[in-house]
Amino acid sequence: MWLRMIATVSVWIITAFPTVAAIEQASFNFSAFNIDTNGSSFYNAPSCLLPNNNLGWNMLKNQDGSFYTHSKRPIILLYDGWDSSMLNAFLTQYILEAMGYRVEVVTRINYVLGIEFYNNAVDLELEIWPQDFGTSFAQVTQIDKAAINLGAIGYNGNIGLYVPSYLFDQYPDWSFDFWRFLLNPEYRSIFPASGTGPRILVNGEPECDGTPGLCMNGTYIPAQCSSANSKCIEMWHYDPGYSSNIYQRLIDGLNLPVTINFLSFGEAQNTIQDAIDRKKAILFYNWTPTSFVANNNFTKVLFPSNNPTQYAAFAKDNSKLLTTDPQSSILQKLASNKFVADFPELQSFATKYQMPDDQINLMLKNMAHNGWSAAEASCDWFKKNQAVWGDWVPDVPKSVVSCPVGTGRYLTGATYSCIACPAGSYNWIGNNTQQCTPCPNEFECPGGATVNVLKVFGCRYLPQRLLFPIFALCMKPAAQIIVVQL
Ligand SMILES: *[C@@H]1O[C@H](CO)[C@@H](O)[C@H](O)[C@H]1NC(C)=O
Ligand SMILES: *[C@@H]1O[C@H](CO)[C@@H](O)[C@H](O)[C@H]1NC(C)=O
Ligand SMILES: *[C@@H]1O[C@H](CO)[C@@H](O)[C@H](O)[C@H]1NC(C)=O
Ligand SMILES: *[C@@H]1O[C@H](CO)[C@@H](O)[C@H](O)[C@H]1NC(C)=O
Ligand SMILES: *[C@@H]1O[C@H](CO)[C@@H](O)[C@H](O)[C@H]1NC(C)=O
């Protein structure tokens, strides 16, 4: 009777006055921060269980008996809508779930970087292509420090223009693998002439429009192709947001008789595949790693080798001409400040997460070859490769009284354990009984025991907190102080 009464009363309370958790949920409007959550369902992969979960984290208890990892707030992972990004997001979901964490997978609405980090709307993004975001990558990570760069994901990204390799069988002497073939009218004649290619409308509108120099009415037409008898050919692209402006400026810079036809993210691959099935001669934009490239015989068209100075100028001003190949992208992992603060025990996991080139390609091939979804391919890899990802998972905390240099003593569940100092903090004390010390102003602490000096200090200026033998030195910016355990 009592129990029943209590239940009735509490239901009434919840209906009449939303609980604190409900208020937080309702007031957090993900879409205002460019995040798509699939309504309230999220984009999580179906669960993928380890046959023998020996990680230990899922059994770790709080003092009140509840499970430590499961009782923390969900971790928000963001993927972008291509295969390799999804494979990594789902793999991370599986690992974190095996550790007992709750995970919510989300995606971006518009392909822009930053707003989600300035507002701590997501925790982790695992495959960031810095060049895609122009100057905003440096703004977000280095200047505003709204996101923490956790280093490279392991494999590189490469964009390029491709032709199907069967063209070499049909025209053995035509050197489609080098950009100069584009200057030969006879070689060009087998490709679709500008304006004759497929026309894709998205909700009745061209894929992009109204941005001279980038895209007008779904196309980019350089000056050399604007006259009726220009004999230009079409290059098929996805969306002007991908590798934004790069091929436009390369077409301008090398005076290529080429126009760009944007086919939209949703339709480009199907359209290209359809032309390949019919053994057509086409020139198209793509990138690696993708299951599309991993599973097809394509040949990349080489441009003069990358000139970094040229691309640095282009990064500042995207009207600057290009004449060389884009550089290979070192793909980065980013975390929000809130993730580092709320999950200090996971920073080493996120930093150590490294997917080798051959392994991401194996998953991508499995998708194309076996007709698997990204969720299925990453589940298969997760079950078979604990020897690889197991090294990323930190040891289950053991109770300790003090911690060595570079680590702090944090409460994880019912036990105190040593956790590597998260970015924004440091520890130089060999028997540290506290959490890591917050990084002082004018210094930068990437984590562990490293402290970078950002400002010139006179010999007398020593922040009280930092009194330490080594600080008897005068310091210059860019000096790096690392203390190792003696
Ligand atoms: C959430 O934000 C979007 C975009 O800013 C806005 O259109 C929408 O009305 C907001 N929803 C709520 C419930 O506030
Ligand atoms: C979005 O949520 C629905 C359930 O509301 C689910 O059936 C669907 O699979 C989800 N979409 C994706 C891409 O995960
Ligand atoms: C846009 O391109 C389409 C297809 O080439 C053409 O029919 C249409 O007239 C163009 N619209 C404008 C505003 O130029
Ligand atoms: C790619 O080329 C190889 C060797 O020429 C061939 O065995 C394979 O079937 C081709 N694959 C596709 C998808 O065309
Ligand atoms: C910590 O180490 C320092 C120097 O090694 C020593 O002076 C101090 O007594 C130690 N403190 C504790 C609590 O062990």
Description:
GO terms for molecular function: transmembrane transporter activity. Pfam families: OpuAC. It comes from Rhizoclosmatium globosum. By secondary structure, the chain is an alpha+beta fold. It folds into 3 domains: 21-157 and 330-392, Periplasmic binding protein-like II (D-Maltodextrin-Binding Protein, domain 2), CATH 3.40.190.10; 158-326, 3-Layer(aba) Sandwich (D-Maltodextrin-Binding Protein, domain 2); 407-482. Helices cover 28% and strands 20% of the residues. The chain is built from 16 helices and 20 strands. It has helices at residues 2-16, 20-27, 83-98, 115-118, 136-143, 166-170, 185-188, 246-253, 265-277, 291-294, 308-316, 337-342, 347-352, 357-370, 374-384, 386-389; strands at 35-36, 75-79, 103-108, 124-128, 147-164, 201-202, 205-206, 219-220, 233-237, 258-262, 284-288, 298-300, 329-336, 407-412, 415-420, 425-426, 437-438, 443-447, 450-453, 480-482. The strands form 6 sheets. Strands 1, 2, 3, 4, 5, 11, 12 and 13 form an 8-stranded mixed beta sheet that branches. Strands 8-10-9 form a 3-stranded mixed beta sheet, covered by helices on one side. A hairpin with a 2-residue loop joins strand 14 (407-412) and strand 15 (415-420). The longest helix is centred in the N-terminal third of the chain and has 16 residues, at 83-98. The protein is elongated, with a radius of gyration of 27 Å. The termini are far apart. One 2-acetamido-2-deoxy-beta-D-glucopyranose is lined by residues 296-297.
